[in-house]
Design brief:
The protein is built from twelve helices and eight strands. By secondary structure, the chain is an alpha/beta fold. The radius of gyration is 17 Å and the shape is globular.
């Protein structure tokens, strides 16, 4: 069983005419201006999953600045969930700096979305104010008992499109403030798995935190799978491809190169996410 915990889909009009959305959406332009940055619709996602042998996938949109675009992408995802009920698992994405963000999240969760994410703020540095912006959405996730998936990245190293300003202490404090929320930190959590080795507090604060593998072949050596599992536990790693950024086959090859025990591999590829979502 393979469950992909991190993929992205878009309405057909965005896929076919992306340039129409560049002027008012600088983050979208930054990530998708290049024609090499692929965009796919839900049916195209399902076709790719069938070819790759993926049983089900979490599908997410984009944290647009305009509320009208949230609503449109969520209409598309909700319809896809109805059309492919055992294949596509919808998460709702908003921009946390916009005033209607929490309202849209509540509307989506009431409609049947299974989680929130990927929350990202590519063009802003929230610093120590992160908790204040995340709190209204984290409260909704606690109420509806759904996971909250947050974009993270390493605060050091090379700069690349999509690398956001991130305060690891601020993120840690937000997680600590909402211990009853299941957090999924994208892209290996920006280094937070290391704190799973602390003797005090760290493991307790991270007890309901999961780390996904999205974009791992771009960012880390294959050893990351084994090392992260040793730091936080193999039951806290969720396979995410970030498709269509990368194909599933790249991750399967790296897991093989990492020499993971078979039970760890099964947990990462589907068991952990199935348990978290009740799939």
């Amino acid at each position: 069983m393979i469950l992909d915990g991190h993929t992205h889909v878009f309405p057909e009009e965005v896929c076919r005419h992306r340039e129409d959305y560049f002027n008012d959406e600088p983050a979208f332009r930054m990530l998708y201006e290049s024609p090499k940055s692929r965009l796919v619709t839900p049916p195209e996602m399902v076709g790719a999953m069938e070819e790759a042998g993926v049983d089900a996938a979490v599908v997410m949109g984009f944290p647009w600045r305009r509320e009208a675009l949230w609503r449109r992408q969520h209409e598309v995802i909700l319809e896809a969930m109805r059309r492919y009920p055992r294949t596509l698992i919808g998460f709702c994405a908003v921009h946390i700096l916009e005033p209607g963000a929490a309202r849209e999240v509540e509307r989506c969760l009431a409609a049947g979305f299974k989680g929130v994410g990927e929350l990202a703020w590519y063009e802003a540095d929230l610093g120590d104010d992160l908790l204040a912006w995340l709190a209204p959405i984290a409260e909704l996730c606690a109420h509806y008992r759904v996971p909250l998936l947050v974009h993270t990245n390493d605060p050091v190293g090379a700069v690349y499109p999509g690398k956001a300003a991130l305060s690891l202490p601020a993120l840690y404090n937000a997680i600590k403030a909402f211990p009853n929320v299941d957090w999924i930190l994208a892209h290996w959590g920006g280094g937070l798995p290391f704190y799973g080795l602390m003797k005090k507090e760290g493991p307790q604060v991270l007890s309901r935190v999961y780390f996904d593998t999205a974009a791992s072949p771009y960012l880390y050596r294959p050893q990351i799978y084994r090392l992260a599992a040793e730091m936080v536990g193999p039951d806290k790693i969720i396979f995410g491809s970030d498709y269509p950024l990368l194909p599933v086959s790249r991750y399967l090859k790296e897991m093989e190169d990492a020499g993971l025990p078979e039970d760890w591999r099964q947990m990462m590829l589907g068991g952990n996410l199935a348990r978290l979502l009740g799939w």
